[in-house]
Amino acid sequence: MNPSRHRQRRSVLFVPASSEKAIAKLPSLACDAVVFDLEDAVAPEAKEAARERLRAWFAARPKDGPELVIRVNPLDSEWGTEDLLAARACAPDAVLLPKVDTPRDIHDFDDALDKTDAPADLKLWVMIETPKAMLNVGALAELGRDAAARLDCFVAGTNDLAKETGVLATPDRRYLTPWLMQMVLAARAGGLTVLDGVSNDFRDLDAFARECAEGAAMGFDGKTLIHPGQIEPARAAFSPSAEAVAEAQAIRAAFALPANAGRGVISIGGRMVERLHLAQAERLLARAGRL
Length: 291
Ligand SMILES: CC(C)(COP(=O)(O)OP(=O)(O)OC[C@H]1O[C@@H](n2cnc3c(N)ncnc32)[C@H](O)[C@@H]1OP(=O)(O)O)[C@@H](O)C(=O)NCCC(=O)NCCSC(=O)C[C@H](O)C(=O)O
Ligand SMILES: [Mg+2]
Description:
There is one protein chain. By secondary structure, the protein is an alpha/beta fold. It has 2 domains: 3-237, TIM Barrel; 242-290, no CATH class. It has helices at 20-25, 47-59, 80-90, 103-115, 131-135, 137-142, 158-165, 177-190, 205-218, 231-237, 242-256, 275-290; strands spanning 11-16, 33-37, 67-71, 94-97, 123-128, 151-156, 193-196, 222-225, 265-268, 271-274. The strands form 2 sheets. It has an 8-stranded parallel beta barrel with strand order 1-2-3-4-5-6-7-8, surrounded by 4 helices. A two-stranded antiparallel sheet has the order 9-10. It is globular, with a radius of gyration of 20 Å. The chain starts with 10 loop residues before the first strand and ends with a helix. Residues 13-16, 21-22, 25, 37, 40-41, 127, 129, 157-160, 197-198, 202, 226-228 line the site of ligand LIB3CWND.
């Protein structure tokens, strides 16, 4: 398994690459990953200066800190090639590709990266935000099954999905939820991490905490964020809770009892617990241990 797939991606903050002020704020922020945006958050006339700002920032990048990602414009847009070259020069941990429709788009981008002699450990994240990407999400995820593949992470683009489909983005996300679940399922099949979409209403942190809890329950690994105030609620929601850790420890302890050594299924507190639950508990404890 690719080591980057074990990284925590609970809180993933978008930062417009054009915003000097937002970039200057980064050392004080405790998010798991930062996505420097060259796409929708940057006006056409500001793209070139934004690339230059990124080059300068990455040249003095801190040794430790969050995972660093650059979102480029699509390769076939007027900014795509320059963005790709700037990303290559910055050497982030990953590049995030928006508006992907088909596996061909990923192959083309991968080939373009190879032509720049990009290192094999430069990862590729992909926005799932078009109707075609939704229809192809299983085939897109398949590309992550190869251990050497760059493809590492799906990011839900709920704003673009709403725009392209006409679906109403209600606060409870009732019309978007089936597609989000499909994305989680596909990501699991392909061994990818998968991040929930952004919440635009960044001042309402109660609603945001509910949306994070919902995203965690849906199986997302973390949430993409647009504002520093969203970091802490996301971190909390996507970390194993004290109750979940205690329950996992109880399952581990029960199976460690000599009386249960040869048993596949036991009962704990009136509930059936099988060895698959033990495996699940071990995974949760390992994750909690890494945090
Ligand atoms: C949404 C914002 C424009 C709001 O900005 P602002 O009004 O400045 O907020 P505050 O005054 O509350 O900011 C307080 C301080 O925090 C800094 N700040 C704000 N946002 C960020 C950030 N994202 N990263 C780092 N620092 C940030 C401010 O500079 C203030 O600093 P200080 O005064 O020194 O204390 C703004 O939050 C913003 O631009 N957010 C990011 C927007 C973005 O990147 N959008 C693109 C990605 S989302 C997307 O495209 C989704 C997807 O593709 C889809 O289809 O759904
Ligand atoms: Mg988008």
